[in-house]
Amino acid sequence: MKLKLSLLATLLLSVFIVNSQQLENSTLWKISGNGLEKASYLFGTIHITCDATLDEDVKNALDETTQIVLEIDMDDPSMQSKMMGGMYMKDGKTIKDFVSEEDYSVIDSLFIKNAGMSVKMIENIKPFFLTAMLYPKMIDCPMQSFEMELIKVAKTQEEEINGLETIEDQIQVFDDIPYADQVSDLLRMAKDNLAYDKANFAKMLKTYKEENISEMLEMINDENMSAFSKHQDKLLTNRNKNWISKIAEYSKKQPTFFAVGAGHLAGENGVIKLLMKAGYTVTAIQ
């Protein structure tokens, strides 16, 4: 009986330590232990940036691994056609179904100013995709992508690129989050012609450069971005939990370099602590 209580106390203590551990500022983490013959690595990216140069620690991790796994297999030749097929709102919905004529006009002006087209031409596309069309306007520089840089490395090293989920999985997220919430964010962006979002994105780039993954997660909680703050379970938590078994499966077969959005790393339901809870040793590379 005493042995059982001792084991239970040890288990509870280990869970408490994992849950209370303050994560270091780092976007690169080493995954080891739990039966792995060789270490794998977890890298937090930012999908849009001014400088996607890979630092030496990341390059070394890429040299030590034999495949790259992104959120989705971006090297899949069918990805673009699948994405195009999932871009449109279901049940014949359009932006007009969620806003007044006055607000529709405000959104229309946003796209005329920033995309060179009227929203009338694309009003049946899911609001998240419409928002993504405006991302290049968030930064005052040519847009770069860490994912594209990693794909270049994979091709140079003749390594396989895989995904933790399918493009269909990601598209489903944008159907699970109410279109009304997505449109609400789009309207807020339109009312100040992206001013708030540009300032917020500049702050996020700075935070990413500082590798402060905990603060990046807090920024996603911004109530001004309701589709993100209200639906973190769909955007982050559920996906993170689904990824752990995939990470385990890939890592057991061969040393793998995983790269996901940095917002997925921190937090009690972030990938790092979920891997720790699954028995892995996850160590910051600083």
UniProtKB/TrEMBL annotation:
Keyword tags: Signal
Pfam families: TraB_PrgY_gumN
The keyword Kinase is annotated on this UniProt entry: no
UniProt keyword Methyltransferase present: no
UniProt signal peptide: 1-20
InterPro entries per record: TraB/PrgY/GumN_fam (IPR002816), YbaP-like (IPR047111)
Residue intervals passing through the bilayer: none
Descriptive protein name: TraB/GumN family protein
Species: Litoribaculum gwangyangense
